[in-house]
Amino acid sequence: METVRIRLLWHKQAQFAGYLVAEALGLGESRGVKIVCEGLDFSQKHVAAVLAGATQMAVASPAHVLESADPAALRFILAIQQQSPLVYPVRRSDGIARLADLAGRKVGVWPGHEDLELRWMLHRAGVAADAVERIAMPDTVGPFLAGEIASAQMTGYHELHHVEEVLGAAALHLFTAAASDSGILKDGLVVAAAYADAQPQAVQAVVDAVLEGWTIAFTDPERAVAICAAARPDMSVAEHRRQLADIRALAMTGATLSHGLGYPDESHVARAAAALQAVEGQPVETAGIADVRFWQAAPAALRRADWAGEQPA
């Protein structure tokens, strides 16, 4: 039995329901692998852990791959979410109506190459790179709630809910990358290229198990929510349930409907490369990073594209 570790992009929660379901139900074991999901380790995040050999896989974005120490050593093999989940709220009372109004202000971003989308948004809005002071955020929204920063990077399925509960949705204006066509995919499954070449059967087993896990999560959400709540009991069942519904909405669009669940669309890598070239002025090599062979070899029932209009049980 091959043990395959997956370093998650954040703490265990419904954001990663399909992975947690695959782990909890042992969906890889009949396929010859034991899946172990690891929560975020700030000392060695996602793709850095893969490059260091500490884990075989990680949930990470194409931007994380391209901004890593060795992009060519990584492969992007699954994408469940098919659009950016990020939002950048500001208080209406601060008089910030346009991205340009952030000039001279502080914006919180997560440390470790998490701000490419924001930099691309500002670039497209004509805001100089050094006009906005980017402040490293902890794993809470405390600095924004305390008024220490004008805006902060948040996900629409987690942090934003908390901020709206405290301040009220009406008190906020949201900047989104979609408004300027600057969205960059956040969550994807990344594997070490050397491991994929040396252990293709193990990688295939994980891909199949993860796709089955997400299929269960989207068709039987209460079962998935129970597993997520057991993995992270400090979040309420209601929070996990709401988060999974938000993740489902992010997944049921784009390549999921045109190709199928989990399709690692090369366009996601291309968009991250376009953003890097725009903000840093250098071309970015992307050949070979998006690897569809494992998705293509997965059972057709797990790659289904006929989700349009379907509601979870």
Oligomer: single chain
Q: Any idea of the CATH topology of the largest domain? A: D-Maltodextrin-Binding Protein, domain 2
Distance linking N and C termini: 34 Å
Low-confidence stretches: none
Q: How many discrete structural domains? A: 2
Return the average pLDDT rounded to an integer: 92
Strand segment tally: 11
Which strands sit side by side, in order, in the main sheet? 2-1-3-11-4
By secondary-structure content and strand pairing, the structural class works out as alpha/beta
Overall CATH architecture of the largest domain: 3-Layer(aba) Sandwich
Q: Write down the CATH class of the largest domain.
A: Alpha Beta
- Assess the beta-strand content as a share of residues: 15-25%
Query: How many H/I helical runs?
Result: 13
The main β sheet shows up as: 5 strands, mixed
Helix content: 25-40%
* Helix-strand pattern: EHEHEHEEEHEHEEHEEHHHHHHH
Radius of gyration: 19 Å
Shape: globular
**CATH superfamily name of the largest domain?**
Periplasmic binding protein-like II
Could you explain how this protein is built, in words?
There is one protein chain. This protein is an alpha/beta fold and 313 residues long. It has two domains: 2-82 and 185-302, Periplasmic binding protein-like II (D-Maltodextrin-Binding Protein, domain 2, 3-Layer(aba) Sandwich); 86-180, D-Maltodextrin-Binding Protein, domain 2. It has 13 helices and eleven strands. Strands 2-1-3-11-4 form a five-stranded mixed beta sheet. Strands 9-5-10 form a three-stranded antiparallel beta sheet, covered by helices on one side. Strands 7-6-8 form a three-stranded parallel beta sheet, with no helix packed on it. The model has no long low-confidence stretch (mean pLDDT 92).
